[in-house]
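Hey there, shall we discuss this one?
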Amino acid sequence: MSITPKLITAALAGLVLAGPAAAQMRPEAPAVTYREGLPAVNAPAPSASPDAGNYAASSAFARWYQAAGRPSILLFWNRELLEDATSQYDSVQTGAVVGASRSDAVSASSASTVGIAGYGVAAGQGDRVAASSRSTGVAVLTEQRQRQERSTESRYALADPTYAHGVESAIFSTFLSAGAKMVSREALMRKISTQKSREDRLDIQYLETLAMGQGVQYLMEVLPDNDPASPTGVSFTVRVTHLPTSTVKAQFVTSGDPPRGQAQWTAVNGAGFEKRAATSRQTPQLVGAQIAYDTMVKLR
């Protein structure tokens, strides 16, 4: 059988007509489907909180504290429980020149007079004295005062009162957040002082002793010391005493350095990426909170 032009044309026409039909017979690609309950794009894993360990310590302390009957805690911040049972005072005398005038008279507000460098000076507590010089005829008015300074005092203190206040407040708030019953030293002493004489109210050690006997279970002393080797520049000595039995529950030294976050990869112009350590978190609030967390670990 010879192939004629008519046959070739018919065959080509058949292919053209069959083309769309053949295309319609091809299987379609499956539609993209997602598993139910999952986002279209997986979110990156959250970075670990630097305070995760502290939060765990707070939760464990809260459980122990509840099981122990929620004992009251008295905080001595920047104050040491001294062995002296009474307050000691030193007499301090000060004097200052408050004025001068032309006069030959000498007046005194006290009957007792002592000679000081050729001047007649009346001495006494809170006395204002006029002294005259015979050579110049100028009366010099001086003021001498005598005051009592309490010598029975703790040696611990921080130079920056704002920083100290922030640390103290954070210690309190961290314990309160864990459900602790914190007792105010000042409120207890004021309450007790109303029943005491004026002389007894001047004895701070005596009032503190009475305050500790008002149902307080634990005394927590936090004593800061400047320490150049510490990461925070301060070392905090913490001592917790169970007052009913006078036994030491915990004693340790901490820098109060809060944990740092994870290092982060940071884009650098023209140099790709570099890994940088997390920034310091040594604010007074976080330092105080860390002291509280470290104490909670020792108590539970």
About this structure: The helical segments are 5-24, 52-67, 161-177, 185-193, 198-201, 204-212, 284-299.
